[in-house]
Structures are given as C-alpha cells and as structure tokens.
Amino acid sequence: MYTQKSFAKGSTAPGPVTQGTIRLYSMRFCPFAQRTRLVLQAKGIKHEIVNINLKEKPDWFLEKNPLGLVPALETPSGQVIYESPITCEYLDEVYTDNKLLPSDPFEKAQQKMMMEHYSKVTPYFYKIPMGRRNGEDVSALEGELKEKLAKLNEHLKKTKSNYFAGNSITMIDYMMWPWFERLEVMELKHCLDGTPELKKWTERMFEDPAVKDTMHSPDTHKAFYQTYVAGKPDYDYGL
Question: What CATH fold (topology level) applies to the domain 2-98+217-229?
Fold first, then answer.
C-alpha cells in the first residue's frame, strides 16, 4: 500500500500494519527518508508508505515517534524504529536477502566511518543555498564543499572501484545518494567539476533500479523546493 497524500494534524491514523509487511513513515521529498526507501526497494522488502506532513504533524504520529521525524518504521507488532541510518541497518539485519552491509566487522566499520565523514558534508547542501538566498557570499563554503567532494573522489580513484565499497552498490552508496540527486536543484552541480570519478559514480547511481524507483525529476524537486523556501511546503506536489 502506497499512501501518497500526506497525513496532517487532525487526520485519522492509518490502521494496523499488515502482517508480512513493514510500514515506512516518510515524506516524498525528504532525503533522509529516501535513504530508507532506497534500502526497501533494493532489498525487495514488501512495505507500505504513509507520508507525513512535517509542518503539521498528526498527534498520532508524534505518539509513535516523539521526535516527529521521518523516516520511521513500524512493524506489525507495533515496534517503531527511527533515524535513517538505524532504520536502514535494521532492515538489512532483519531481511537477510540482498545484504547491503558486509558481514566482516572491519568492512562494516569502514562503511560506518565513511558515513561519519559524509555526515560532515551534508550540512553544506543546506548552508550554501540558504546563504545564497540571504545574499551572502558563499564562495568560501563552496570551496569547503569542493574540498570534501575531492576527498570522496580520491577514495574512488584510490580504490579504482565503481562504488564506495567495491564494484557493486552497498549501503554506503545509498546513504550518500539522496543529496547528489538534488545537486542540480541546489545549484551545486558545478561542485563536481574536477571530480571525474565522483561524476562517474553519480552516472552509475542514476542507472540503479532502486534509485530510479525512488527519485523525482529535477523539475519536480525544484517545484517542491520553491514551496519549501516560501515557507509553505507542498508535500503533495504533483499528486
């Protein structure tokens, strides 16, 4: 079941999670929720999606997740798991087909270390467009972002791999991807100039079935982003 329209304050809570499936509380344009959707698709997990209006969150959702954040998972037994890396690791542990995390402890630790590094990169995807909108000089911030992207490029160059942990897509690729999908919308695509390996990685990722299943077109992203910047996010844009 895909519940496309978002549930807002005052809405009736959806019924219990169907046996044999897992429910994802999401928002169609949220990059953090997209991480979990990518994992669900890549692993072929039977699931249903309930989209949440993040500006006017339903009380019933806040009871399930007091932080009010997406993504959050709910099992048929009523267990709730939230925070994007935690939901993704949970899915990989519970649904053992098509494993995305390595079983070797050191290799798994390496992916988590890469995630720690990448967590320092994502704030730039918000700071730079915001600064630009406020009329600030963002050239220094862009320079810092380019440095960090150059390090990611260096990793791919050094390992001579198609993806960040080898020649097939693994968890770390999906964890990083959503912000690269949005580079054009955030007017940061030029930050990939001078990072040829990273550019090739993005081209490969665009061809991945799970990425294709969860992505929006640049025009759709832009249209939603404009409503978000205006302070009136249209979570149901395009439906």
Answer: Glutaredoxin (3.40.30)
